[in-house]
Amino acid sequence: MKRIGSIFLVIFGICLILFGLLFILGAAGQTYRYVIAGVSLCLGAILTGLGIRIFKQADRLRPEYIRAEILKLAGSHNGEVSQADIKALLGERYSGANEVLANMCSQNLCQLHKRKTEIYYIFENLQPRLTVRRCEFCNTELPLDEELSSCPNCGGSIKTSVEKLSLSKDDYYSMDE
After folding, report:
1. The whole model's pTM is what?
2. Three-state SS for 16?
3. Domain residue extents for the chain
4. Coil, helix or strand for 135?
5. What residues does 134 pair with on adjacent strands?
6. In angstroms, rounded to a whole number, what is the distance separating the alpha carbons of residues 155 and 142?
């Protein structure tokens, strides 16, 4: 409803601006016409700006917009977002986020997980993935850049796979290992 009202404000503001421009063109040196034109231009600019502002505020409450913001946040947090992070991002708009998150969970876009007292939403498609080469028998991790046909430790076969790592499950990795 706010969006329709804001569109009417913008249209009315533009009409007032055009009315003011018409009075400037037809002023013919008469002061009262310049005054009417100035008031009309100012009022039109104020109404147009107010209408645009209300439209943007109403647009930010739409579920599609909230969903896009949550996905952007999840992408920047390696596919895992806590409920507190979502509350901090959305602020007053968090009440609309519960329905959006429920829809995302029902569509299997995310999963709800609890770790201690914190609630996490895990987006598996946005989590980091690592290509790992491991021995199938002794589980030794081997470097990717070497051409090996068998494990140097036990002689077992080597399998290269892609692994997803979840930060909420305490699966941390580092470049030093």
Report:
1. 0.60
2. helix
3. 2-59, 63-125, 128-164
4. strand
5. 141, 159
6. 13
Which structure tokens are listed for 69? 């913001």
Q: How far apart are the first and last CA of the chain?
A: 57
Q: What angle do CA 92, 94, 98 make, to 5 degrees?
A: 155
Contact criterion met (CB below 8 Å) for 65 and 59: yes
Residue 83: predicted pLDDT:
85
DSSP annotation string for 52-95:
HHHHHHHHTTSHHHHHHHHHHHHHHTTTEEEHHHHHHHHGGGHH
- Determine the CATH number of domain 63-125: 1.10.10.10
Closest of 52, 122, 51, 54 to residue 83, by C-alpha: 122
From first to last of its 177 residues, the chain has per-residue pLDDT tens of: 788 999 999 999 999 999 999 999 988 889 999 999 999 999 999 999 999 999 998 888 888 888 888 888 888 887 888 888 888 888 888 887 888 888 888 888 888 888 888 888 888 888 777 777 888 888 777 777 777 777 877 777 878 777 766 555 554 444 444
116 in the Ramachandran plot: left (φ > 0), alpha (ψ -120 to 50) or beta? Answer: left
